[in-house]
Amino acid sequence: MNIRLGRRSFLGATVIGAAASLVACSSGGAETQEQARQLVIGATAPPAALDPSTNSGAAIPQALLYNVYETLVKIDSDGQIVPLLATSWNESEDGLTYTFTLQPKATFASGAALDAEAVKTSLERVKNDDAVLATLKSQLGAMESVTVQDASTVVVKLSQRDNDWLYYAAQTAGIIYDPDGIDSLGTAPAGSGPFVFESWSEGNPMVLTRNESYWGTPTVFDSVTFKYFSDPTAENSAMSSGDLDVISNMQAPQAISQFEDPDQYTILNGTSMGEVVLGFNHQREAFSDVRVRQAINYAINRSDLLQTVTAGYGTLIGSMVAPTDPWYEDLADTYGYDPDTARRLLAEAGYGEGLDLSLRVPSLPYATSAATFITSQLAQVGITVTTDTLEFPSRWIDEVMTKSNYDMTIISHVEGRDIAKWANPEYYWHYDNPEFTQLITEAKTGPADEQTEKMKQAARVLADDAAADFLYSMANLVVLRAGISGISENLTSESMDLTAASSTDI
Amino acid sequence: MGALLRIRDLRIGFGRAEALHGIDLTVGEGARVGIIGESGSGKSVTALATMGLLPDTARVSGSIELGGRQLVGLSDTGFARLRGDVVSMIFQEPMTALDPTMRVGRQVAEVLRLHQGAPAGRARERVIEMLSQVGLPDPERISMSFPHQLSGGQRQRALIAMALINQPELVICDEPTTALDVTVQARVLRLLDEQLDAAGAACLFISHDLAVVSQVCDEVLVMYRGTIVESGPIAQVLENPQHPYTAGLIATARIDQIEPGRPLPVIENFWDGKEGRP
Amino acid sequence: MTDDEPDPGVPVFEARGVSRTFRRSGTRGRVLTTALDGVDLTVRPGQRLGIVGESGSGKSTLIRVLDALLPPSSGEVLFRGRRIDNASSRQLGDLRSSVQMVFQDPRSSLDPRMTVGDIITEPLRSPLLRSRPDVPRNHGERLAEVLEQVELEADAAGHYPHEFSGGERQRIAIARAIAPRPDVLIADEAVSALDVSVRAHVLNLFADLVRSDRLTLIFVSHDLAVVRHVCDHVAVMRSGRIVESGPIEQIYASPAREYTRNLLASVPKLRVRTASSRRTATEVPDEMPPGPDDPPA
Amino acid sequence: MRRSHPLVVGAVLVGLICILAVVSFFWTPHDPGLVDASIALQPPSRTYPLGTDGFGQDIFSRILVGARICMLVGVMAVTIGALLGVPIGILAGMSRRHVGRRIMRWADIFYAFPALLLAILLAAANGTGSTMTAMIAIGISSIPAFARVANTASRSVMSRDFVAAARSSGIGWTAIAWRHVLPNILPVVLVQVSSALGRAILAEAALSYLGVGTQPTTPTWGRMLYDAQKFVYDHPAQIAVPAVFIAITVLGFNLLGDGLREALDPRLRQEA
Amino acid sequence: MRALGAIARQLLSLAGSLLIASFIVFALINALPGDVAATILGPNSDPASIAALRERMGLDRPLLLRYVEWLGGLLTGQPGSSALSGAPIGSIIGPKLAVTAWLATLSMLMGVVLAVPTGLYSAVRRKRADGVIISGLTQVAMAVPHFLVGLVLMIVFAVTLRWLPANGYTPLTSNPLQWLRHLVLPVAAIAVVEAAMLIRYVRSAFIDVLNEDYFRTARAVGWRFVPAVIRHGLRNASLEVITVAGLQLASLFVGSIVVENVFLLPGLGSQLLTAVNQRDLPVVQAIVMIFVAIVLVINTVVDICYHLLDPRVRAQDEETSS
Fold first, then answer.
1. Over the stretch C170-205, which tens digit does the pLDDT of each residue have?
2. Which of B101, B110, B146 sits opposite E221 (nearest CB)?
3. How many CB atoms lie within 10 A of CB E105?
4. Nearest residue to D89 via CA among D110, D75, D113, D119
5. Which residues of D touch A376 (CB under 8 A)?
6. Superfamily of domain B3-257 in the CATH hierarchy
7. What's the fold here for domain A272-476?
8. A86 backbone dihedrals φ, ψ, rounded to 5°
9. Could you tell me if residue E80 is left (phi over 0), alpha (psi between -120 and 50 degrees) or otherwise beta?
10. Using CB atoms, which residue from D168, D172, D180 is nearest to C69?
């Protein structure tokens, strides 16, 4: 080859040289001190906005609740309500008045004092401002008035007893916002927590930095970054290549084997508040007959389903109750796997020759896998299922929740204590069981100590009546890089509580 | 004058068919030898073999000697040194023979610099001089323009300039004027005749038209289906062709001798050796 | 032969002041080139008109205008006294049945995907010709007739064009032209692409057909010798204009215009170059008027 | 036509896949949809020639059914592209140069909507991606390629003398299009069909990967590839099987296209 | 220079196509069922508050009015703001466009750098073994989906060997080295497939040259085989490369969605997917319009380059026959 080609091979040499240098200086090896103080967390559904009070995305409280925003009281990792901004509170005999004594040292990140007046503004905003989400309004529905007794005491009066009010006040509904920043919550969250919002925009990570003037015990981390992965495999690869320190909730448990080395990773297999429910549309004629609903429960081998969909991670449940709920009872074997009984019940209900049902699932990994499993299992008892996936969130919400244009669907309900939804016939299941509704209202408005017993009875009614096929409670599968600790195993609230997180490398 | 080009028993085959069945021909220094024949007679294949430009599917045997050098089996590098310097070739279709994306002057200069390594400046002068020598009216403009801006005649003259710029010993022309208009053809033939004299170069001139060959050449070979059926000085071949095919060829070429209205003579009247209809 | 015997008085074709320009939208903007520049021409029935000229002289454009394949930019074209330059394609039934064309390149004038039989009988199936009385009805019979007339075997009908030589393919093209029994045959460089030996056969075929079917012939060629043999009249064209026209012997013997003289002089004649006579130039004058040598049209 | 390697190899590969697709209509070793958690992620064995996937479904049966659906998507998409693209190309090729250029300009607007973009929008419109939306999206986006091929080929046929001959005997434009232009451009269109089929299969795989392609329960190879992704660390074979079948099919179509192009290219034919 | 006339004409028709495409884009996207208001307010929001929000966002006004408004905004540089987060679209899309632009252009560049020499080599040695092997490998490389190549590269180089980061992105401005390290694998994943396609075109362009008369002239004047191919083939092939590379670059902008997904690059592709899922129509419209505009602009630029560079094309315009 003459010189002309020679020049090209020279070009080739430089390219290879550059590549080698690029690789050589990769960090690999031991983390520098400075990097150890930056915590990087992998999560799945990205937030659509920043203001938890006007946008319903679960990703917002996950990152901001307790970390940036604080509430009077909070839910700890065992599901108990413990003091936070309020050092103590007491509930009147008739359960209608709650008196909170505020933490004197508490200040907002902006430096302003967190006094009774600020609490009053935030709580009343939920009641009066129509931009606030309807769910939050109904959670604090019973709240009638908020009065400032003195700078560090607040008295809340309820119109009627509501044993769940304090539970909800401990989460998103009860966030105490910095009054000065209330109008720009959409772009600049202003709270009082150990972290301060640093940056986020659509499609990019959410970055929080340490609140230098935090009133409580400060965090050991300089910053926390939430990276959002739409694809589970990409998230796993990021973890194994050292880009991530924590996977908040592993979507594809099948690939967990790569993190089984205890020196490198710790795996937390806790429970979450998410109940994965095979919901029935009770408006449909077939589902008005309890035998059909029970037949479906008998026809699906839920432990096999758990093995296939989440490689065995998660807890089998029998009703709309998560293991962390105080009134949890293991009702998993209300209906064992018994295809013959299922066929018998179907025949009795008049569907001996067969039943056609549609199963419309959101485009989420667990839902589509479960759909494949359920379609095949129901086929063996004579129920022909036609499955289609609806784009989540918009199309699924539109078709299933707003228009109830479905026979069966699969979704995980992540809000805490969402068993109460079964008492609302307007909700997309359209379930109307007076006995159940009565128990729920009694539990909510009756004496506090009777709440747990009443809720247990309600859960049993749901299970016996086969209101739905309660498949399993999602596992809260957290993967930590060795050395990271202080992150709770169970998911007891909407928040990923990092206030107690720390790392041995720091 | 020793023989410049001596071809002995040249056989060329493609796949199963053999296009040339062993031909012998000699071209003396400065001699002008024409080859006439119809399509498929093997005249172009002979030219391409002498230039070493046959496709690599061709099987060549026999000997081609040019100025004492054996060309059959010569390496591409060896042949490249000869082409454009010792032996050069002019092709039939001027419209596509020049690189459309390169200015004409540069293509001509390439030939010069390739063989004589002349510095750019001197090469430019030599090119302008050569372009005017081949009768192009405005050599500067021509050398700066692209091929598509020139007429067929002008492009063929530029190609002639390229063929002659290195004063080759042998110039092979394969139907150089067939694609040109008759008036342009007349002038190009005359130009070719003069320039070959000026360069003292020998010429192997291939055409299907006997009249055109007679303008440039002294001797002529008649090829038919891969063999030479007759050869000799043009006058002798014209006056009393030995082979009936030659006689037929000459008769059909001279249609101006035939009374309008009377049927034209066809080769079959002279020679029935042709297999199958034309 | 044909029932409405053409009245000898009315000319077959008449072109009055016919011009044709082409608009080119190259990077050098709208460039207008004139292919025909005010041509006047009359073709009488039974006449054998040769049209000669070099490339770019407009001879091919002229016959396309005459055959109404190309509308003229200005001027009038009449076929048997009736204007055809502005007629709609349906009104051209008479022209289409009476006038047929033969083209130059045998490789391009036959559709490689059709059998020879279909190619030859295609004009008979044309909507304009099918219903006309003077066009043969029985295609099979006519096919055999014309194949025999152009000296091709009957079984050629079933084969495809690529199975035939250049000469045979040109015969097929001629068979296609004469199938609908036209009165006028237009040949556009019909023998230029053929070998010399084959050319004679095809020219003889043309001569026989013109005589036997009493056809009017318009023969376009750059080869003056061929035209002289085939035609009785000739028109010499240059840069879109007819430079000279008239009976062929008179034009060839004493051309009035200098361009015609040069044209005739340029035809290479068989001559003997004795060693001494190397310097005798052919009769071509040194200084040729510029023209056919300028950049392509 | 000289024996050309690409044509033979291409035809064999494509033939193989077609056989798989046809067989799947009548027989699959197991029910492709049958889920059995106990036998998930089995290596290839006698009963499960290609092993089982994460749901315990027989991979070989799903590959068979996948072949049928991928071919269906490919063929339907290419039909849409050809049926719309080729006539536009012929129309542009047969009309005058500047009119032709304007028509092609319109066809090129479809270039602006690549298959992926259309699929995302159609999936959103239809509520969910499905084989139908994939077909339409890939089909529409292949229109300009067909139009371009048909345009250049038709324009060169129109320059041939046999078209002038037909015109001079009064044959109408539509007859010329049917009898002369279409048969003569068919070979070139065929070459385009073959490579377009290859591209369609790749596009379907990409769409399924993004979740805007076919339904989760319909076993296309793209879907299988997507589902197998989670097992990429400890069961890499899961991803290899569908990937290999996609590659074989696309390779087959591309080779077929090259082979046809070589066989039909007049220049190469003279060389033979 | 008269050539400007042709370019002006092409730019005019580009503007025309853009306008038509913009209407198609707007109409198509606004026909999408499912509603951003419902997404914002969440699952159990009541129809009344959804309707109120829709009204506040002006989603009920007639399509044509909104189209004109949107077009006006587009032309004056304010494409509006995201329906979900209220952030101005420019700030959302700007950095993302940079990522996709870098990804597409770098992989096309690497593709061309790989394709031209290999195409030349496989053309020159097409009869010999290594030539056949190269074209065989090219065929295989073209038959493998982008994302699979990406996945394999990621597993080998990022996860197992840990040489390069598995995913994520650092803007060029903040850390050029990290920026480069994040782009190496995704660019390689795309470049491998794109180069394969390009090699075929370059190879056929060089082989075409072998059949040209001017190549035979070059050989006849004394050029050896390979220099002759390069000298005359390179220009012809480069024209071919410009056209094909142009078309590929255009489709690459959208094609990179898949690779963005594998390597988690915050490009336009992944942003489009999330925006469509959330029915954030203003963002969807803006991104789709950008993709459409990029494709049309690149096609026009390729046409113009072809016109300027190839004297033959200018000659083609001067063809006389109608």
1. 999 999 999 998 999 999 999 888 888 888 889 989
2. B110
3. 14
4. D110
5. 33-35, 55
6. P-loop containing nucleotide triphosphate hydrolases (3.40.50.300)
7. Dipeptide-binding Protein; domain 3 (3.10.105)
8. -100, 125
9. left
10. D168
Residue with tokens 């505020």: A102
How far apart (Å, rounded) are the C-alpha atoms in residues A56 and E49?
Answer: 14
ipTM of the complex: 0.79
* Nearest chain D Cα distance for residue C127, angstroms: 7
By C-alpha distance, which of B48, B59, B50, B44 is closest to B12? B59
| Half-sphere exposure at residue C228, Cβ-oriented, CA atoms within 13 angstroms | 16
Q: Which residues pair with B23 in a beta bridge?
A: B10
Superfamily of domain A73-182: Dipeptide-binding Protein; Domain 1 (3.90.76.10)
Choose among E17, E28, E31: nearest Cβ to D105.
E17
User: Does A6 score more than 50 pLDDT?
Assistant: no
Q: Which residue has the tokens 């469509």?
A: E276
Q: Among E29, E35, E44, E235, pick the best mutation site for testing chain A contact (most A Cβ within 10 A).
A: E44
Distance CA B112, CA E291 (A): 51
Is the residue at D147 inside a domain? yes
Task: Give the model's pLDDT for residue C278.
Answer: 47
Assigned token pair, D167? 């015109």
Q: Return the C-alpha torsion angle D186, D188, D194, D198, nearest 10.
A: -140
In order of their start, the domains of chain C are: 45-57+96-265 (3.40.50.300)
pTM for the model stands at: 0.81
Mean pLDDT by 10 residues, chain E (322 residues): 71 86 83 70 69 75 82 80 78 87 91 89 84 87 86 84 81 85 91 88 85 90 88 79 82 80 84 80 85 86 80 49 32
Give the residue on E whose Cα is nearest the Cα of B90. Answer: E217
How far apart CA E132 and CA D5 sit, in angstroms, is 11
Instruction: Count other Cβ atoms within 10 Å, centred on residue C9.
Output: 8
| Domain interval for residue D188 | 73-240
Asked if residue D124 belongs to a domain, the reply is: yes
Name C148's Cβ contacts closer than 8 Å, sequence gap at least 6: C154
| Exposure b/e, A438-449, CB count within 10 A at least 16 = b | ebbebbbbbeee
Q: What percent of chain A has pLDDT over 90?
A: 27
**Which two structure tokens, joined as six digits, stand for D200?**
């369609």
- Chain B positions in Cβ-Cβ contact with residue E223 (cut-off 8 Å): 80, 110, 114
Gap between the Cα atoms of A208 and E119, Å rounded:
51
A7-67+184-270+477-503 CATH fold: D-Maltodextrin-Binding Protein; domain 2 (3.40.190)
Determine if residue B233 is left, alpha or beta; phi over 0 gives left, psi from -120 to 50 gives alpha, anything else beta.
beta
Cβ(A239)–Cβ(D233) below 8 Å? no
Residue to test with chain B: of C195, C269, C270, C279, most B Cβ within 10 A:
C270
* Residue E165 contacts residue E175 (beta carbons within 8 Å): no
- What is the mean predicted confidence (pLDDT) over A319-347? 89
The amino acid occupying position E18 is L
Tell me the pairing of strands B32-36 and B202-207: parallel
Using the Cβ of E4 and the Cβ atoms of chain D, whether some distance falls under 8 Å is answered with no
Going edge to edge, which strands form the sheet with C216-221?
Answer: C99-102, C184-188, C216-221, C48-53, C233-238, C241-247
A236: its two tokens:
């796993």
Q: Which amino acid is at A482?
A: A
B83 with E213: Cβ contact below 8 A: no
Three-state DSSP class for E299? helix
Burial status of residue A453 (CB atoms within 10 A of its CB: 0-12, 13-18, 19 or more): middle
Among candidates E31, E159, E272 on the partner chain, residue whose Cβ is nearest the Cβ of D120: E272
User: Which residues on neighbouring strands pair with residue B34, listed in sequence order?
Assistant: B205, B220
User: Computed over its alpha carbons, how large is the radius of gyration of chain E?
Assistant: 24
